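Renewal narrative, Specific Aim 1. Our central claim is that a sequence can be written position by position from structural information alone. The example that follows is taken directly from our test logs and has not been curated for this report. It begins with the C-alpha cells describing the chain, in the order in which they were read.
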C-alpha cells in the first residue's frame, strides 16, 4: 500500500483562490510530515483522470483542493474503491460540499489540524442514470437556470452531459431573474417506495448534503451516511409564491409550507414527456427519465468529528 498522498489541485477554482493557497498547502504538508505529490488539473474532467490513474497504481490517499466541481470529479473515480481515502480541501466559490464534512468554507488553522488527523467515515453517494453525485441533484427551476446560463454548442445523447460554455456573473443573475419570472413548471410522473404521483415541479432538490448554491438549505435534515436521499419537492407557484418559497428556503423555514413535500427514500424515478435539464453537483444533464438511487457507504472520506458535520455517528 502506497502511503504517499496524491494532492490534486484545481488552480482556477474559486476564481484563482485555490492557486493562492498552494504555498500554504505545501507548508501544511511539510508541517505535518505528510509525504505527497501535488498535481495540477489542466482541463475539465482532468481531476477524475488523475485520481483514476493513481488508484490503478495502488495509491490509497487522494487529496483534492478546489471547489465542489473538483470534488465531484474526483469522486467519480473513487466510487467502487472504498479502501481509498478521499480528503477534500475547499478553495472554491460555493463550497457547499465541505459543509457535509464539518470543515469551514476556507480552512482555519483548527481545520488543518483536524484534517491531518485523518479521521475518516464512510459516506453515501447518489447515482442518476449511471452518473454519480456526492452533494446534490436538482430538477426544476435551479436546473433551468443552469441551462439558461450556458450557451449550447450542440446536444449529446441524453445519457451524456451537454456540451456547454458558461456565461458571466451578470448573465447568471439575469438568468435567475428571467427564470423566476417566466419559468414554466414541467409535469413529472414520480415513483418511490410503492407510491406513484404526478406533480408539477417548480423546485426538486435531491440531497446527500444539505446546502446548494452557497446558501440554499433545501434538504436540511439530510445525513450523508443514513442510506437515504432527502428530497424536497416544491410544487407549481406564482411569481410571488416563488419569491416567498426561496426566502423561506434561505431561512430554513420551508418544510412546513403547504407547497412543500419532503421525503426520505433510497430510490426514486422521475419521468417527463419531454427532455428536461437536471444538474448533478452542478454538472448539467438532459433526459426524459431519471432513475436515482443511493449508493450506501460509497466513499471513505476525511471529516472533522468536532465540526458541524452532516453524519450520523
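The sequence written for that structure reads:
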Amino acid at each position: 500500500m502506497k502511503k504517499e498522498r496524491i494532492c490534486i489541485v484545481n488552480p482556477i477554482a474559486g476564481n484563482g483562490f485555490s492557486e493562492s493557497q498552494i504555498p500554504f498547502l505545501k507548508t501544511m504538508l511539510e508541517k505535518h510530515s505528510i509525504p505527497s505529490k501535488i498535481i495540477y488539473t489542466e482541463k475539465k474532467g482532468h481531476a477524475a483522470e488523475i485520481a483514476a490513474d493513481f488508484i490503478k497504481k495502488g495509491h490509497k490517499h487522494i487529496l483534492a483542493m478546489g471547489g465542489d466541481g473538483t470534488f465531484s470529479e474526483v469522486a467519480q473515480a473513487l466510487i467502487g474503491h472504498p479502501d481509498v481515502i478521499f480528503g477534500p480541501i475547499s478553495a472554491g466559490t460555493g463550497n457547499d460540499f465541505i459543509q457535509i464534512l464539518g470543515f469551514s468554507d476556507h480552512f482555519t488553522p483548527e481545520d488543518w489540524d483536524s484534517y491531518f488527523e485523518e479521521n475518516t467515515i464512510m459516506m453515501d453517494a447518489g447515482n442518476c442514470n449511471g452518473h454519480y453525485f456526492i452533494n446534490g441533484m436538482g430538477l426544476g427551476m435551479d436546473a433551468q437556470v443552469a441551462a439558461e446560463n450556458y450557451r449550447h454548442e450542440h446536444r449529446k445523447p441524453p445519457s451524456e452531459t451537454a456540451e456547454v460554455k458558461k456565461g458571466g456573473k451578470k448573465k447568471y443573475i439575469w438568468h435567475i431573474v428571467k427564470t423566476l419570472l417566466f419559468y414554466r413548471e414541467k409535469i413529472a410522473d414520480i415513483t418511490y417506495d410503492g407510491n406513484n404521483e404526478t406533480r408539477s415541479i417548480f423546485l426538486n432538490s435531491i440531497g446527500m448534503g444539505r446546502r446548494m448554491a452557497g446558501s440554499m438549505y433545501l434538504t436540511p435534515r439530510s445525513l450523508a451516511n443514513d442510506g437515504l436521499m432527502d428530497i424536497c419537492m416544491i410544487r407549481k407557484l406564482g411569481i410571488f409564491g416563488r419569491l416567498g418559497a426561496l426566502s423561506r428556503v434561505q431561512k430554513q423555514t420551508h418544510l412546513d409550507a403547504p407547497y412543500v413535500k419532503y421525503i426520505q427514500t433510497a430510490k426514486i424515478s422521475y419521468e417527463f414527456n419531454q427532455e428536461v435539464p437536471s444538474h448533478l453537483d452542478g454538472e448539467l444533464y438532459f433526459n426524459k427519465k431519471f432513475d436515482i438511487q443511493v449508493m450506501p457507504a460509497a466513499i471513505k472520506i476525511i471529516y472533522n468529528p468536532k465540526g458541524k458535520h452532516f453524519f450520523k455517528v
